């Protein structure tokens, strides 16, 4: 490359290294505090970047983004409180692992899969940005609609135990997601005149309430103080275990990359899709949801795979795929740079310096994550009678911090009760969450497709992408039905046999 | 290791400070006597947010106080604005970055808890951003006239970034004035709306200039017109809609405006201090550069003239909302 020396000159400045390191540290810490999300941290850091060099400024924000993605998993694993929405899926197996005394192992698995996924995502960004951006442009409302349909079939695999209860939970999630502004007509639905509900039910209070509060209620209901083992944090992750998860991590990363490259889907959906894919393929299927290390790896690979890839539409098309990249776009513009095809012509050296920094941030994440685990995993050793009041305080603070609003605290407590009822009735919370996240996307893209196609249904089968997702959706449902029916038949046969006897 | 731990602690403290727990910088008896809150009635990341953070940064250099940006998103901009309208003891030190959502929100929400004009004082219009009527590069329409003629024959679609956005309302205004058939296709923000336009899923959009400028320059989108009264210096070859001269389009003059407002009880003294400080901010090189990067013109009006501008803007959008049937 002609101007390689220029790239090196731009990248190798102390400012850049400090920016990355600070960004990742801030990200991990903020991400791990429930209610403080990476989005908030990026927004708060933005004004500080105005006076920095452009590359250092962007790298600081990217560092926070990546750190935050991982940081969210720490509290999800340790105290069943997802630090950020994207880590909700990580707690499904991460928290059971921590309870079984494998907190450190879960944290390490989350870290290594995050770093590997991040690395793969960066590679995709650097080498396939132009190609993936083209795919993203072909992803219109009908394609989105079928992608969401396919993703909704995840509910089937997450409805561990009873299918009926799983579907019930999912439908309840979809129902609650309807609260707020109707995107097409702008009318208010189910808000009962309460302006706090006018936007929609806040996601973070819902998450915290649904997962963290039931644990606390359960603990005080039983009143028995469990004797904590001296070292509940347990051992780290053995290399053989990491090796076992490697294909899952790579597959999850690729899922994350594709979802990340398409603007508007998000890391939370990627984590769940990766998780259900891993569960479907794993020989340890039955152990998913009960503390399977592969489940943690799949979830984290999915959500971190998104991080680098969301930069693809941003850099190559100037289109931010989520709120964080929208803020990063703002940072570019403050420095007089406009992401998009023109930037690749005019500021190529800068882009390559940025790529080097983004790659370097993966290494920093590994180092910072390891230090963080060392201290954070001590949380697992704190007796629950001391830990839970602190957790409760964080829950209240976290719910409040999202909008600085006490209404969200009440909302969080209400969902705590819902979560507790779910626990007692053995209704799985994950399908509820999927319904809540994907429900609005399903509805909006359905209605959007019909508006674009002037109510002509043929728009839903307009090209190869739609055909592929239709096939996947139908296949996924057929497989589930087949399993459901054969399981019933087996059960009936077994019952018949025992009656004969 | 210890160092890393200290860094961690420091970042937590830093985060807490940044979150608004910072100590007040109390000076003499003159206003401001405490930190100033700049409320952004939208989520982080949009134009309003980026602009507010830039303005806050410059403003606190001009005033003897910290200016803390606080995002209060929800229901257009009406949640954050509604909070400001209620006043309270912070009202003397709270300002808000208003935008077309202020007037459009008032036009489409019938049961708003506040009066968009009387409940506020209007400090300074910071910037104006024109919207651009853009079509995909492979669109057959080369001019506004061609587009309107085609839209009289067949149903067209236009993308927008959400019900009640200036992009949406500009589309509705265009539809009303030209008496054409156009269907609004909503997206969650311009980021999501842009691919539909670039990919040709919708026929046209009335996007904010900064969102589409680079795509116009790279040839991925074709600009048919700008919505401001004068041609934009960033797109000197693109006519204004009012230049078209047909289909009532001479009445089509709108810009996305951004300006600072405060509660109606905001004291005379505070208003004077703010006017002086904002005058200085708007003369600064950093501010003018920033406006240029956004494709924006520095705002023209302040005080009573700004208020008059708001009254007129409100009347226009009330008319459009009624015509389009989106008032509730």
Give an overview of the whole structure.
- The complex is a heterodimer of chains A (501) and B (328).
- Chain A is mainly alpha-helical and 501 residues long.
- Chain A has one domain (4-462).
- Chain A has helices spanning 4-11, 14-32, 38-49, 54-79, 91-99, 103-137, 141-152, 154-158, 163-177, 203-222, 239-261, 267-281, 293-309, 311-317, 323-334, 341-346, 348-376, 384-403, 406-424, 429-452, 464-500; strands at 180-181, 188-189.
- Chain A has a two-stranded antiparallel sheet with strand order 1-2.
- Chain A is globular, with a radius of gyration of 23 Å.
- In chain A, 58% of the residues are buried.
- The mean pLDDT of chain A is 86.
- Chain B has 328 residues and is an alpha/beta fold.
- Chain B folds into two domains: 30-128 and 256-324, Bordetella uptake gene, domain 1 (D-Maltodextrin-Binding Protein, domain 2), CATH 3.40.190.150; 130-251, Periplasmic binding protein-like II (D-Maltodextrin-Binding Protein, domain 2, 3-Layer(aba) Sandwich).
- Chain B has eleven helices and ten strands.
- Chain B has helices spanning 2-21, 47-62, 78-85, 100-108, 144-153, 166-178, 190-198, 209-217, 268-283, 285-294, 303-324, and strands at residues 36-40, 67-71, 94-98, 120-136, 156-160, 182-186, 204-208, 221-226, 255-263, 297-298.
- In chain B, strands 1, 2, 3, 4, 5, 6, 7, 8, 9 and 10 form a ten-stranded mixed beta sheet that branches.
- The longest helix of chain B has 22 residues, at 303-324.
- The model of chain B is unreliable at 1-28 (pLDDT under 50).
- The chains are: A mainly alpha (501), B alpha/beta (328).
- At the A-B interface, α2, α3, α15, α16 and α17 of A face α1, α2, β2, α3 and β6 of B.
- Chain B: Residues 1-28 form the signal peptide.
- Chain B: InterPro entries: BUG, Bug_dom1.
- Chain B: Belongs to the UPF0065 (bug) family.
- Chain B: Keywords: Signal.
């Amino acid at each position: 490359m002609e101007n390689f020396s220029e790239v090196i000159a731009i990248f190798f400045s102390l400012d850049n290294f400090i920016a990355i390191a600070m960004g990742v540290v801030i990200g991990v810490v903020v991400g791990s505090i429930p209610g403080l999300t990476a989005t908030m941290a990026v927004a708060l850091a933005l004004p500080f970047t105005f006076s920095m060099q452009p590359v250092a400024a962007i790298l600081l924000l990217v560092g926070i983004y990546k750190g935050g993605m991982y940081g969210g998993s720490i509290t999800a694993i340790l105290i069943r409180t997802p630090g950020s929405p994207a880590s909700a899926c990580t707690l499904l197996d991460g928290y059971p692992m921590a309870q079984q005394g494998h907190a450190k192992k879960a944290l390490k698995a989350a870290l290594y899969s995050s770093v590997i996924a991040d690395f793969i995502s960066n590679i995709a960004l650097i080498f396939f940005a132009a190609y993936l951006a083209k795919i993203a442009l072909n992803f219109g409302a009908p394609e989105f609609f079928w992608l969401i349909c396919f993703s909704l079939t995840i509910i089937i695999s997450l409805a561990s135990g009873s299918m009926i209860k799983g579907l019930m939970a999912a439908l309840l999630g979809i129902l609650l997601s309807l609260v707020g502004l109707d995107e097409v007509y702008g009318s208010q639905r189910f808000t009962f005149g309460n302006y706090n509900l006018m936007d929609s039910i806040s996601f973070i209070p819902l998450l915290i309430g649904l997962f963290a509060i039931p644990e606390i209620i359960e603990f005080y209901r039983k009143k028995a103080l469990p004797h904590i083992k001296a070292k509940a944090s347990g051992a780290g992750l053995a290399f053989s275990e990491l090796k076992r998860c490697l294909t899952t991590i790579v597959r999850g990363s690729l899922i994350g990359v594709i979802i990340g490259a398409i603007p508007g889907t998000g890391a939370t959906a990627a984590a769940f899709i990766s998780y259900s894919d891993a569960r479907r393929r794993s020989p340890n299927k039955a152990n998913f949801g009960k503390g399977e290390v592969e489940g943690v790896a799949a979830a984290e690979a999915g959500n971190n795979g998104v991080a680098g890839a969301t930069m693809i539409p941003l850099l190559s098309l100037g289109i931010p795929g989520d709120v964080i990249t929208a803020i990063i776009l703002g940072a570019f513009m403050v420095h007089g740079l406009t992401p998009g095809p023109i930037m690749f012509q005019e500021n190529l050296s800068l882009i390559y310096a940025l790529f080097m920094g983004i790659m370097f941030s993966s290494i920093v994440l590994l180092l910072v994550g390891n230090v963080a685990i060392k201290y954070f995993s001590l949380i697992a050793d704190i007796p629950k009678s001391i830990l839970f009041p602190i957790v409760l305080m964080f829950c209240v603070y976290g719910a409040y911090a999202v909008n600085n609003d006490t209404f969200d605290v009440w909302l969080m407590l209400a969902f705590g009760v819902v979560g507790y009822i779910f626990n007692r009735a053995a209704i799985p919370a994950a399908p509820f969450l999927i319904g809540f996240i994907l429900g609005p996307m399903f509805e909006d893209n359905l209605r959007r497709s019909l508006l674009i196609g002037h109510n002509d249904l043929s728009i839903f089968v307009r090209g190869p992408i739609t055909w592929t997702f239709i096939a996947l959706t139908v296949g996924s449902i057929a497989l589930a039905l087949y399993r459901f029916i054969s399981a019933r038949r087996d059960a009936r046969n077994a019952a018949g046999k025992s009656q004969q006897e | 290791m210890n160092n890393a731990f200290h860094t961690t602690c420091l970042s937590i403290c830093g985060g807490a400070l940044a979150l608004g727990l910072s100590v007040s910088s109390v000076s003499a008896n003159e206003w401001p006597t405490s930190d100033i809150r700049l409320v952004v009635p939208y989520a982080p990341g949009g134009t309003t947010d980026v602009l507010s953070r830039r303005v806050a940064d410059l403003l606190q250099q001009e005033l003897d106080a910290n200016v803390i940006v606080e995002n209060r998103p929800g229901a257009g901009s009406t949640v954050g604005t509604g909070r400001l309208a209620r006043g309270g003891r912070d009202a003397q030190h709270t300002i808000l970055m208003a935008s077309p959502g202020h007037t459009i929100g008032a036009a489409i929400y019938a049961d708003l808890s506040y009066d968009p004009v009387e409940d506020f004082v209007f400090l300074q219009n910071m910037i104006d951003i024109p919207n651009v009527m853009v079509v995909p590069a492979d669109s057959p329409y080369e001019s506004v006239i061609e587009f309107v003629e085609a839209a009289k024959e067949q149903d067209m679609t236009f993308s927008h970034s959400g019900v009640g956005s200036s992009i949406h309302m500009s589309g509705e205004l265009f539809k009303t004035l030209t008496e054409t058939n156009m269907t609004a296709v909503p997206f969650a923000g311009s980021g999501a709306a842009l691919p539909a336009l670039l990919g040709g899923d919708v026929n046209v959009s009335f996007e904010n200039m900064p969102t589409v400028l680079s795509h116009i320059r790279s040839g991925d989108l074709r600009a048919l017109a700008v919505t401001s009264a004068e041609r934009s210096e960033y797109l000197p070859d693109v006519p204004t809609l009012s230049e078209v001269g047909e289909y009532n389009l001479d009445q089509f003059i709108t810009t996305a405006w951004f300006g600072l407002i405060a509660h109606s009880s905001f004291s005379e003294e505070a208003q004077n201090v703010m006017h002086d400080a904002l005058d200085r901010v708007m003369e600064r090189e950093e501010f003018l550069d920033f406006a240029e990067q956004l494709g924006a013109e520095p705002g023209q009006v302040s005080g009573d003239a700004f208020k008059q501008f708001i009254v007129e803007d409100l009347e226009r959008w009330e008319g459009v909302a009624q015509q389009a049937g989106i008032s509730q």
